[in-house]
Amino acid sequence: MNRAQVTKGKGEPSTGTLDLVRLTALMDLTSGSPEVSVGLIDGPVARDHADLADSAIQELPTARGSLGQNSKDPACLHGTFLAGILSARRGSDAPAICPACTLLVRPIFREGGTGGTYEPSTTPDELAAAIFDCIGAGTRVINLSLALVRFSAGSDTILKSALDFAMHRGVIIVAAAGNQNIVGSTVITRHPWVIPTAACNREGLPSAYSNLGLSIGARGLRAPGDGVISSRADGQSFSSSGTSVAAPFVTGTIALLWSEFPSATAPQVKLAVTQATKRRISVVPPLLDAWAAYQTLAIR
Q: Which residues contact 269 (CB under 8 A, 6 or more apart)?
């Protein structure tokens, strides 16, 4: 499960956040390539936001049709915020990691929810269908910042099949670890092909709310998740915290790496970004180091 803790107003400047995980140097080299498609399985995105209007954002159809772009709904707020981290124009308040990549949005969250927190959730069956849709549309990396609800008999098997298919097709999956401050795992975070992402504070230390676990520590990363500024669906900017926020830093890094090294295989990119060359036994994953990942691929 993954709850975005929303605070209106300004948070930490994007430059400091990017420097923490050494993304600035990589972003100076490239803003991405349109041939690299990033899948965002999330809420609808307000594509008319000034910081997103010039980005290559496409919405994949769903069985339920368009879910709308209500700028006041938490689902749209969540999707637009994550889209800003990935695809906002450079120079905006948002991190804007890979704006030249193609962002394929697969809406999955229904409208609803009030108050200052929002818990994006879906069912395993719906998530599996969305993963298959993104893979079919040609995505190279998929971002999952969500929780799972309403498990049914066989739902674990259905979702595992979708994740297995992503592994077979060489589509990397990045997933938020969750915000319940527990040590444990889910069918998503314990899958060997997924990169589970915990949140860290401005000093790089694990955030107090972030879930941890053996699978997260063994194959995952931690990335900025406290007071990150990005795009608000009503055209403004605001700051938010959570592992939902942390995951797209890893997703965006992978998109930039594939833009610079288009012939690299999925296992090569995944190994470079996770730096998982030694067995890890800690429940706390290492901090994302985008520049180290670049250097690893540069000398392969």
A: 172, 254, 257, 258, 261, 297
Measured CA to CA in angstroms, residue 274 lies from 14, 28, 107, 184, 289 at distances of 22, 21, 28, 20, 8
Q: Which helix (H) or strand (E) holds 31?
A: none
Token pair listed for 102: 């193609």
Asked if the model's pLDDT at residue 118 lies above 80, the reply is no
Give me the chain's average pLDDT, please: 89
pLDDT tops 70 at residue 3: no
Q: Measured between alpha carbons, how far is 200 from 222 in angstroms, rounded to an integer? A: 6
Burial class (CB in 10 A: 0-12, 13-18, 19+), 44: buried
Q: Is the pLDDT of residue 114 over 70?
A: no
| 70 phi/psi in degrees, rounded to 5 | -70, 110
Given a contact cutoff of 8 angstroms between Cβ atoms, the answer to whether 147 and 189 are in contact is: no
The runs of H, that is alpha helices, within 220-288 are 243-260, 266-274
Structure tokens at 9: 């107003």
Considering only CA atoms, which of 297, 220, 221 is closest in space to residue 265? 297
- pLDDT average, residue stretch 87-106: 97
pTM: 0.93
- pLDDT band at residue 69 under the 50/70/90 scheme: low
Q: Are 228 and 17 in contact (CB under 8 A)?
A: yes
* DSSP bridge pairs for 7: 239
